[in-house]
Amino acid sequence: MAEITIDIKDWEKLSTKLKRKYNHLTDEDLVFEPGKEDQLIGHLATRLHRNRDYVIFTLKKGLINIDNNRL
């Protein structure tokens, strides 16, 4: 099970933040279904050339201040 749970409503905002910070990510890279956080984390780790812990940290950071535009 993933170390993070993402609500679909929050994902809309979080994916926008990710696209701003990592402009090479495509809409296909940011497809997400609730309950499949592990798949998302693995895919983002590959696309960002970072490890799993970094991706989880980045996602959690974005969720903390979900209404803020910064990541």
Q: Care to count the β-strands?
A: 0
Distance between the termini: 24 Å
Q: Helical segment tally?
A: 3
Secondary-structure element series: HHH
Structural class: mainly alpha
Radius of gyration: 11 Å
Helix content: 40-55%
Taken as a percent bin, the fraction of beta residues is under 5%
User: Segments where pLDDT lies below 50 for 5+ residues?
Assistant: none
**CATH topology grouping:** Protein Yjbj, Chain: A
CATH class descriptor: Mainly Alpha
Instruction: Let me know the average pLDDT.
Output: 94
Any key phrases for this structure?
single chain; 71 residues; mainly alpha; Protein Yjbj, Chain: A; 3 helices
Protein model, in words:
The chain is an all-alpha fold. The chain has one domain: Orthogonal Bundle (Protein Yjbj, Chain: A). Helix 2 packs across helix 3. The chain has three helices and no strands. The model has no long low-confidence stretch (mean pLDDT 94). Helices cover 55% and strands 0% of the residues. It is globular and about 25 Å long. The longest helix has 14 residues, at 8-21.
Short description:
This protein is mainly alpha-helical and 71 residues long. Helices cover 55% and strands 0% of the residues. Helix 2 (37-48) crosses helix 3.
What topology does this entry show?
Elements: H1 8-21, H2 37-48, H3 52-64
Helix pairs in contact: 2-3
